[in-house]
Amino acid sequence: MSDEAGKTTGKKAILKNSSGMASATFLSRILGLLRVRLEAAVLGGGEIASAWFLVFAIPNLLRRVLGEGALSTALIPLIADSELQGGKEKVRRQLAVVFAYLGILLAVIVLVVSLFSWYAGRHAHEWRWEFFHSERIILTFQLLPLLMPYGFFICLVGVIGAVLNYAGVFLRPALAALILNVVLLLVLSSVLIWSLPEAGFLPVLALSVPFAGALQLILMVIRLYKVGLFPDFRKGWQERRIWKELFKLALPGMLGYGALQVSFLIDRGMAASLGSQAVPALTYVDRIVDIPIGIVAVSVSSVLMVMMSRSAAEGNCEEIADTLAYGLRMVWFTTLPLAALVVFFHNNILQLLCLGGKYTVSDLQSAHYVAIFYGMGIPFFCSLKIILPAFYARKKMKTVFAVSLTAIVANIILNYVLMQFLAQGGIALATVIASLINNGVLLLLLKRENMTGKSGEVMLSFLRSGAISFFAAWGIFELYRRFFETWATLRWQNTLAVLAVIGVVFMGIYFAGALMTRSPELREITGLIRRRKR
Questions:
Q1: Residue 18: its pLDDT value, please?
Q2: Sheet strands (E) in 233-383
Q3: DSSP symbols for 309-339
Q4: Is residue 159 part of a domain?
Q5: Fewest 10 Å CB contacts: which of 106, 117, 271, 522?
Q6: How far is C-alpha 423 from the chain's CA centre?
């Protein structure tokens, strides 16, 4: 097979695998939007919502560091090398060591955090710092021991998901993510139907999260067994070195992810100091922004990580560079129009998803600047997930750590400065600027290594897609503001109808503009659709 034919096949594989994973993720995100609607109605945008989102952030921190973060990304290149050397049996022995040590580490972390939180929930009101006397902080400490076991289950799910991705299984890990949303939707719906008091439903809501995590883990273990990569615990002792090698390789990334998540907690801590509306404002908008990140960036990134790791194991850096350029073009083509819609129509989206129940107009207004800045950041949040595999696949975790640490420090400083003028909107803007710094420095380093040979095509794709998206969204917004705004805000049904029409018209204009400017991304996507129909 020629080089060009191989590259074409690789591009088809990226689109095929990522599109299947994106479909499952899309379904999960749709359920996530329903969950946002119910959370807003049940929890509102004040003290209780602040506590709930702060509690959820702790096990998610663990998931991003030890589950879907540095550990799983470092594991894929090692698996690629091991399979070349000793086949699946060697991989199974190594996985036994990884899961045994990881399970022990997670159990210790969960136990320590739960015990500390249990103690703090009983004695926080005695502490000198007034910040810990607020209702949202005390409630956070009280709920965390109930929800913390979720961190244990979801971290193992994340690592197994990485192994399954390497084995070519992308759909099942994405579908497993549906379970959490389904369980929470059932509990939140029950709260609304029977009008349960806060003291009664909050513990049940917290316990439902680790229950969903346990179900996810069971399904993933079954799938791991079916693909022939279930850990061989009988002979795992032969591969004890893998844990040291993995930990050494993953440590810089773990520190980077850890610092990033600590920065996230600092964001939320600073937001909590601004008042009860700040944390919910950031979180509800973050859920909306997470839709394109999950559907597009995470789906494509998971496929790229596997492909780049195999290319790196073969020493084919040219293929890594080509894959990176293709991934960036496709991600920007799909996320720039979504970013434009969020920036111009965020008020309608938030009104439809959140307004009602305990979520008030005041809560909605507090999210205005957050939505604008987070919306602007969508393409850069997504592109970062495409750039990182180019470093992880070549085991350059230290480089990523150094760059991300710089961006984190900038983020914290900018948080403090910008929140003085824009409140929680300043925290959102600081996050976007830090992401731009991270993207820019990493791309500059790749350019020095001659890993951005198609940078002209990538930049042209960004400018073309960005210009079409902006002018299409701006034109539709002006028409909406003059003729339909008053009618659209009368009832939620009106808002839904207007957003549906806007979405259809916008995508029609966007694809027409892409067709007129001969966008190669549009040809590649429509080509995949035609092949699937055949």
A1: 57
A2: none
A3: HHHHHTT-HHHHHHHHHHHHHHHHHHHHHHH
A4: yes
A5: 522
A6: 24
Predicted pLDDT at 8: 45
**Residue 369 in domain:** no
Higher local confidence (pLDDT), 80 or 428: 428
Q: Which is more confidently placed, 227 or 208?
A: 208
Alpha helical stretches, state H, 44-69: 47-62
How many folded domains does the chain comprise?
1
> Measuring CA to CA, how many Å separate 119 from each of 106, 115, 369, 433, 477?
20, 6, 37, 38, 52
Task: Let me know the angle formed at the C-alpha of 25 by 329 and 310, rounded to the nearest 5 degrees.
Answer: 55
* Per-residue pLDDT reduced to its tens digit, 488-506: 877 878 888 999 999 999 9
Cα distance between residue 348 and residue 332, in whole Å:
24
- Looking at the chain, the number of H-run helices and the number of E-run strands are 20, 0
Degrees, nearest 5: CA angle 470-474-478: 175
CA dihedral 170, 175, 177, 182 (to 10 degrees): 180
Q: What pTM was estimated for this model as a whole?
A: 0.74
Cα–Cα separations (whole angstroms), residue 123 to 8, 126, 136: 62, 5, 14
d(CA 411, CA 127): 29
How far is it, in rounded angstroms, from Cα 390 to Cα 304? 8
Q: Which of the 8 DSSP states describes residue 308?
A: H
3-state secondary structure (DSSP) of residue 2: coil
Residues 431 and 410: their CA atoms lie apart, in Å, by 9
Among the listed residues 80, 156, 148, 145, the one whose alpha carbon sits nearest the alpha carbon of residue 117: 145
Instruction: Please tell me the least confidently modeled range out of 102-111, 174-183, 229-238.
Output: 229-238
pLDDT band at 528 (very low <50, low <70, confident <90, very high): low
Domain hosting residue 244, numbered range: 67-271
In three-state secondary structure terms, 239 is helix
| CA-based nearest residue to 278, from 66, 115, 385, 426 | 426
Q: How far apart are the first and last CA of the chain?
A: 24
Task: Report yes or no on 408 lying in a domain.
Answer: no
Rounded CA separation 396/390 (Å): 9
Is residue 197 packed enough to be buried (19+ CB in 10 Å), middle (13-18) or exposed (0-12)?
exposed
pLDDT over 90 (residue 164): no
Give per-residue pLDDT as tens, 120-161.
877 766 666 665 666 777 888 888 999 999 999 988 988 888
Other Cβ atoms within 10 Å of 417 Cβ, number: 12
